[in-house]
Specification:
Blueprint (H helix, E strand, L loop, with lengths): L10 H12 L4 H9 L2 H4 L5 H11 L5 H14 L7 H9 L2 H16 L7 H18 L1
Helix pairs in contact: 1-2, 1-7, 2-5, 4-5, 5-7, 7-8
Length: about 140
C-alpha cells in the first residue's frame, strides 16, 4: 500500500503509464513509466538485475532500448542524500526521464487529497509543486 494515500501501490505506475501513453509517449517512455520507481522501491534490485529481467521478459526490445529504459529509470531514482536541486537539475538534462517525472508528479499531486494528515498533505503538495516548477 502507498504509505501516504493507503491505495494499492501498483495503481500509481499504471496511472503514470496511462498518462504517458495518452500524451503520445512512445514504447520506451511507456516502459520507463511502468518501471520508474522500481530501483527506489524494490529492495536489493540493481540496475543489472533490471536489465536482465527486461532481456528475459521483453525480448522484443533491442539491447540499446533496454539500456535506455534502465538508464532513465536510474535518472528517476533519487539517491539517498541527494539534494532536490541536484536531482531535478539532472532530470532536466534527460528528456525521457523528465517527461515521466512530470506525469509522476501530476499523479502524486492528484492523489494528495487522500492523505488524512493535513500537515503531510501540505508538505507533499509543496514538494510536488516545487518539483514541477523545477522541471518546467
Amino acid at each position: 500500500l502507498n504509505q501516504h494515500s493507503g491505495e494499492m501501490y501498483i495503481l500509481h505506475p499504471i496511472r503514470v503509464y496511462i498518462a504517458v501513453k495518452n500524451s503520445g509517449g512512445d514504447e520506451i517512455n511507456q516502459a520507463i513509466s511502468l518501471l520508474h520507481d522500481v530501483l527506489e522501491d524494490v529492495e536489493d534490485l540493481t540496475e543489472y538485475d533490471l536489465k536482465m529481467k527486461l532481456e528475459n521478459y521483453l525480448g522484443r526490445f533491442e539491447f540499446d532500448k533496454i539500456e535506455e529504459v534502465v538508464d532513465n529509470v536510474r535518472f528517476l531514482t533519487k539517491i539517498a542524500g541527494q539534494s532536490n536541486d541536484k536531482y531535478y537539475a539532472n532530470l532536466r538534462e534527460h528528456p525521457r526521464a523528465r517527461a515521466v517525472k512530470l506525469h509522476d508528479i501530476d499523479d502524486n499531486f492528484s492523489r494528495n487529497h487522500l492523505i488524512s494528515d493535513p500537515e503531510k498533505q501540505l508538505r507533499l503538495m509543496l514538494k510536488y509543486s516545487k518539483g514541477k516548477k523545477m522541471l518546467l
